[in-house]
């Protein structure tokens, strides 16, 4: 079975998503590295093989005409403060609204190790 269309140009190991959580500052930073041959576009900026960039919430990631939008949410406790005892940030990637498919979540869990896709 052969891959057709734009997905045929995506490398098996195309990118690494690295999530760094700072418990003291109550922040999370997300970085994307292009480890595949085809370029990745992040908010209109070209990411060539070997390049990396920081991602921000509502950022648009495009790989071979597939658009993903990244959402970074910070969970709060009942009194409005960020939880310190557990992973308090969630990373969620959704298909961008201009795709013809319905808007659905693809991932919503922060992993302690870099993600490879």
Short structural summary:
The chain is mainly β and 117 residues long. It contains no helices and ten strands.
Taking Cα atoms only, what radius of gyration do you get, to the nearest Å?
15 Å
Number of strands: 10
In angstroms, what separates the terminal alpha carbons? 20 Å
Beta strand %: 35-45%
Mean of the pLDDT scores? 74
**Helix-strand sequence:** EEEEEEEEEE
Low-confidence stretches: 82-88, 100-111
Q: What characteristics describe this protein?
A:
G-quadruplex RNA binding, six-stranded antiparallel β-sheet, 44% strand, FHA domain-containing protein, SMAD_FHA_dom_sf, mainly beta, MCRS1, 117 residues, 10 strands, 0% helix, globular, four-stranded antiparallel β-sheet
Summarize the structure in words.
This protein has a 6-stranded antiparallel β-sheet with strand order 4-3-6-7-8-9, with no helix packed on it. Strands 5-2-1-10 form a 4-stranded antiparallel β-sheet, with no helix packed on it. It is globular and about 45 Å long. With 117 residues, the protein is mainly β. The protein has a domain at 9-70. Helices cover 0% and strands 44% of the residues. The protein has strands spanning 15-22, 27-34, 40-42, 45-47, 52-55, 59-63, 66-74, 89-95, 105-107, 115-116. A hairpin with a 2-residue loop joins strand 6 and strand 7. Mean pLDDT is 74; it is low at 82-88 and 100-111.
């Amino acid at each position: 079975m052969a891959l057709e269309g734009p997905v045929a140009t995506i490398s098996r190991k195309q990118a690494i998503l690295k999530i760094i959580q700072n418990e003291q500052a109550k922040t999370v930073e997300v970085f994307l590295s292009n480890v595949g041959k085809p370029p990745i576009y992040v908010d209109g900026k070209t990411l060539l093989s070997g390049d990396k960039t920081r991602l921000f919430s509502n950022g648009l990631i495009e790989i071979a005409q597939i658009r993903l939008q990244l959402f970074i949410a910070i969970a709060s406790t009942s009194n409005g403060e960020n939880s310190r005892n557990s992973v308090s940030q969630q990373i969620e990637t959704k298909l961008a609204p201009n795709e013809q498919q319905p808007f659905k979540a693809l991932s919503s869990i922060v992993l302690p190790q870099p993600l490879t896709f």
